[in-house]
Write a structure and sequence with these properties.
The complex is a heterodimer of chains A (about 750) and B (about 180). Chain A is of the alpha/beta class and about 750 residues long. A seven-stranded mixed beta sheet of chain A has the order 5-4-15-14-13-6-7, sandwiched between helices. A six-stranded mixed beta sheet of chain A has the order 20-22-21-26-19-23. A four-stranded parallel beta sheet of chain A has the order 10-9-8-12, sandwiched between helices. Chain A is globular, with a radius of gyration of 26 Å. Helices cover about 20% and strands about 25% of the residues of chain B. In chain B, the strands form four sheets. A four-stranded mixed beta sheet of chain B has the order 8-1-10-9. Chain B has a two-stranded antiparallel sheet with strand order 2-3. A two-stranded antiparallel sheet of chain B has the order 4-5. In chain B, β4 and β5 form a beta hairpin. Classes of the chains: A alpha/beta (about 750), B alpha+beta (about 180). The interface between A and B is large, with 76 and 66 residues. The complex binds iron/sulfur cluster (3 copies). One iron/sulfur cluster binds near residues 13, 14, 18 and 138 of chain B.
């Protein structure tokens, strides 16, 4: 076998395609400037600035190196992890390493933009000065406040700088704020675990993967999802000989490293989880002492799962009974050093809180919560709050948009704010204006048609972003933000085995006329008479004030980047001789939840049958690739080189039925008639079930200003119109859509922004 | 002294961090790369095997690339690292033709470029950029001549293979399988 780069390109034409390896011009080249091959700059001539990554929520802490370019200008060179950081252990993931692409992206927003309507009725953006932009935003905020009350202005946010805007909104009088990280991602998991253990998991999840003996991945494709510390610990677990059980309709990277791969029929996880409980209880393989001491409702659970035999589950999940038994025994043998991974993106079928409850309960049966090799008890550093006045009390909040719905939601529900913004909202509280910070709603919230209808129903929309996102295309005012590499932000206080504090500071001046979020908030607040909430000239003063209160300083943090603190309590794991009080109504881990019952939900998880693909349709599964974070990176010049578009994974049998070949471009249509704007390359592979197709989320960008991302592949969000709402938390189930292939280009509708 | 690498395919997740880290460390222009990821899938659903490899120049013991270079620009430095002196390279491409691994590319500035094992880091006692960034710790770099080095132990203890041994270049990158 000759291993060539070209092979690689073929495999992932899909991946690195487009490398101009053989086509670079060399003819006629004259060595006019000579380059020493040994003058590659090394770290000794570089400067470094601490930062923590903003390419995903994991927020790894590291160093941004700069060195001098040919013209002697100091330029950002590379980003390396900080060895003292428990989130990264000194090693960033590819997205974090490629984070400099966010700085160097040629398509970045440069200057504030204002929507204007020309004489011909066409709308365009014109560049305006910051003073004018801030004036317009402040005036509109005043106007909305006078006309409807401040509550009618909603804030959608994601990421670290969202916190500054949250302060601005609370000061202004609105608590109508939400981010897709909850209702489009982890809400069911957080509330399912809260209802069981009295405690959600937060980020990074306190999973003791490196000490585990058995890792069960059900709804997690760790390794393709590069949640950094977890991937590192999974590798350590492999090295230590732990067994991995992967439940996935697709032969994921993790599946390839597993002792057992269970290619489950999508939408049937709860049946498998119940059958596992059945085996573990029936064969008395649960942690008897732990269950007796720490849990409530065991008898009810035992009775509940009595009939959920592996044979019953086989008909539902397509997983053979002996495999269900074998895997149940495998995890029980490792108990309590076993983790049924809680996943993260858990908004799938509309019964997602119940699914997460089932995962939580299985962990509790095996005694893994609070145990070495299971779930540890994290600690987080505390810092004094920079002084500011108390916030006014809003008259209503997101919950009042639909007071009877989603009783278990503990944070703002994005789609509820969209419901409150939509023209079909006739009664009650309404949202009239949006402030959108660092989140790309049309690509993130399923059913983009509805989101766009809500957008058109707004009187005013401000978008803060570093990139011309799809959302920015709908703004009245666009405020260009400096990236995390060019700004101060709050200190990172991440929970982990040991508490740490990490600093973000600029390694370069803000690009063009971009500004940090805190500066925008401070200036808007100034115009609204809310300056006392932003009582500083530069955000670094806030950090220095906080750090001095704990005996450190900004100067010290600039040297070390990450400060490691000692745990206050020696309770990383449970002490076997001690009693534990859980923050649940019974004070125990709740197998049976009266709280769920009282709120109108099943007190113990039940399996519900979900619709199956109609003939000729396939369930659309979406996920992540290690080098991308959704639409945040699908224009990044470094990361797009590694994967420049997504591909559609199709089983060879399905491909044969349709005559599809690898590399062939197809368009998709879902079971409700939605048609994709762009096409996608087929990847025929044995690595997926016949009834499903798979693609990586975040591609098929619609904004033409994104020179790399525009039209590259398909946006799965376009194909998700049939949304199943989780009644407990209001989160949006998005695995409920079926697609079929269109081998000819469908008639074009203008759909770009 | 003989530098080499061992890469544990059982741990590698194909994240390509090694690729980006090399590109930033060595300021490789967009569209080019010194290292890359290959995947091999074997079997039929549901009995499948997947091997993921991080690949680059094998810093071979027997080097057709150096032999065919008409200017002496392709050469071997201490520790067996195969390098190209950029200013002596005339860009004829003979080395590219002769390499069985497609490990070299034309740099847009007119010379041939390839993996250097990050010798600018190695001489300061650091690991190559790809090795130092790998989140799964699946890459090992060091002296294969020293039986006590980590890499020698890893190679001795595990089942290893090299790529395309039949090409006869005696590659010095070992894959743990
Ligand atoms: S996991 Fe990767 S993208 Fe996320 S914060 Fe860490 S380095 Fe950045
Ligand atoms: S960085 Fe490590 S895990 Fe990632 S592809 Fe490279 S060798 Fe594999
Ligand atoms: S891999 Fe190719 S370029 Fe590297 S030493 Fe061997 S023959 Fe030469």
């Amino acid at each position: 076998m000759k291993t060539t780069r070209r092979d690689f390109i073929k495999i992932s034409s899909l991946g690195i395609g487009g490398l101009a390896l053989s086509t670079s011009p060399i003819l006629g080249w004259v060595p006019s400037f000579l380059k020493e091959d040994d003058n590659t700059p090394d770290d000794s001539t570089a400067k470094r600035y601490p930062n923590y990554c903003e390419v995903c929520f994991w927020n790894c802490a590291g160093w941004v190196y700069t060195n001098k370019d040919k013209d002697g200008n100091e330029k950002i060179w590379k980003i390396i992890g900080n060895d003292d950081d428990p989130n990264s252990n000194g090693r960033f993931c590819p997205r974090g390493t490629g984070g400099i692409g966010m700085y160097y992206d040629k398509d970045r927003l440069r200057k504030p933009l204002k929507r204007v309507t020309g004489e011909d009725g066409n709308q365009t953006f014109v560049e305006i000065e910051w003073d004018e932009a801030i004036d317009i935003v402040a005036k509109k905020m005043k106007e909305i406040k006078t006309k409807y009350g401040p509550e009618s202005f909603a804030l959608f946010k994601h990421g670290t700088s969202g916190k500054h805007f949250a302060t601005l909104f609370k000061a202004y009088g609105s608590k109508n704020m939400a981010g897709p990280a909850y209702s489009q991602c982890k809400a069911p998991r957080e509330e399912g675990f809260r209802m069981t253990f009295g405690h959600p998991l937060h980020s990074p999840e306190p999973l003791d993967i490196r000490n585990t003996r058995c890792l069960v991945l059900i709804g997690s494709h760790l390794g393709e999802n590069m949640h950094n510390g977890q991937v590192q610990e999974m590798s350590e677990a492999i090295e230590n000989g732990a067994s991995i059980i992967t439940v996935d309709p697709r032969f994921s990277t993790a599946a390839s490293k597993s002792k057992f791969w269970l290619p489950i029929k999508p939408s049937t996880d709860i049946a498998l989880l119940l059958a596992w409980m059945h085996v573990i209880i029936k064969e008395k393989r649960y942690d008897i002492d732990y269950v007796e001491k720490n849990t409530s409702g065991f008898e009810q659970l035992k009775n509940h799962v009595k009939n959920f035999t592996p044979e019953w589950a086989y008909g539902i999940t397509t997983i053979k009974p002996d495999i269900i038994r074998k895997t149940a025994r495998e995890m029980a043998a490792a108990s309590p050093a076993v983790i049924i991974h809680p996943g993260r993106h858990a908004t799938w079928y509309g019964d997602d809180t119940q699914r997460s409850r089932a995962i939580a309960i299985l962990n509790a049966l095996l005694g893994s919560w609070g145990r070495r090799g299971g779930f540890f008890n994290p600690e987080k550093a505390k810092l004094p709050k920079y002084p500011m006045p108390a916030f006014p009390k809003p008259k209503w909040s997101w919950r009042d948009i639909a007071p009877d719905k989603y009783p278990l939601a503990k944070m703002g529900v994005t789609n509820l704010l969209i419901d409150g913004s939509h023209p079909d909202k006739k009664e009650g509280h309404k949202i009239k204006a949006w402030f959108v910070v660092g989140t790309n709603l049309p690509v993130t919230i399923p059913n983009s048609k509805r989101t766009i209808e809500a957008i058109h129903n707004q009187e005013f929309i401000v978008v803060v972003d570093t990139m011309p996102s799809e959302m920015a295309g709908y703004a009245d005012i666009v405020l260009p933000e400096a990236t995390y590499l060019e700004r101060y932000d709050d200190l990172r206080l991440a929970q982990h085995r040991e508490p740490t504090i990490a600093l973000r500071m600029p390694a370069a001046k803000p690009y063009a006329e971009t500004r940090p979020g805190w500066k925008m908030c401070k200036d808007i607040a100034g115009k609204l008479g809310l300056s006392e909430y932003f009582n500083y000239n530069d955000y670094s003063e806030v950090l220095d004030w906080q750090l001095k209160k704990i005996g450190s300083s900004l100067d010290e943090m600039k040297e070390i980047g990450v400060m490691k603190l000692d745990r206050k309590y020696n309770d990383l794991y449970f002490h076997e001789h001690m009693e534990h009080e859980f923050e649940t109504p019974t004070g125990k881990i709740e197998f049976y939840s009266n709280g769920m019952l009282a709120a109108g939900f099943a007190p113990m998880p039940v399996y519900t049958k979900h619709p199956e693909p109609p003939k000729g349709f396939y369930r659309l599964i979406y996920g992540r690739a290690p080098m991308h974070t959704f639409s945040r990176t699908t224009n990044n010049p470094y990361l797009m080189e590694l994967m420049k578009e997504n591909a559609l994974w199709v089983n060879p049998k399905t491909a044969k039925d349709w005559g599809l070949k690898t590399g062939q471009r197809v368009w998709l249509q879902n079971h409700q008639g939605a048609v994709s704007t762009f096409s996608i390359a087929v990847r025929v592979t044995e690595r997926i079930r016949q009834d499903s197709v798979y693609m990586v989320h975040g591609f098929g960008r619609l904004n033409k200003k994104l020179t790399k991302g525009y039209g590259a592949g398909i946006s799965d969000t376009e194909m998700v119109t049939d949304v199943k709402i989780d009644k407990e938390t209001g989160s949006t189930g998005m695995r409920s859509n079926f697609v079929t292939f269109l081998t000819e280009e469908p008639e074009k509708k203008e759909k770009t922004v | 002294m003989r530098y080499g690498m061992a890469i544990d395919t059982r741990k590698c997740v194909g994240c390509s961090d090694c690729v980006v880290a090399c590109q930033t460390e060595n300021s490789i222009p967009h569209g080019y790369t010194r290292d890359w990821i290959s995947e091999t899938v074997e079997g039929m659903y549901p009995n499948l095997a997947l091997e993921i490899r991080s690949e680059r120049c094998n810093h071979c013991d027997d080097t057709p690339c150096v032999r065919t270079c008409p200017t002496g620009s392709s050469h071997i430095i201490e520790g067996g690292i195969v390098k190209v002196t950029h200013e002596e390279c005339i860009g004829c491409g003979a080395c590219i033709e002769s390499c069985p691994y497609d490990a070299r590319y034309f740099h847009p500035e007119g010379y041939v470029d390839k993996c250097t094992f990050c010798d600018h880091r190695v001489k300061n006692g650091q690991d190559p950029a790809c090795v130092s960034v790998c989140p799964t710790h699946c890459m090992y770099f060091g002296d294969l001549d020293d039986p006590n080095s980590e890499i020698s132990k890893v190679v001795a203890k595990n089942k290893v293979k090299v790529l395309a041994p039949e090409a006869g270049t005696k590659p010095q990158i070992f894959y743990l399988v």
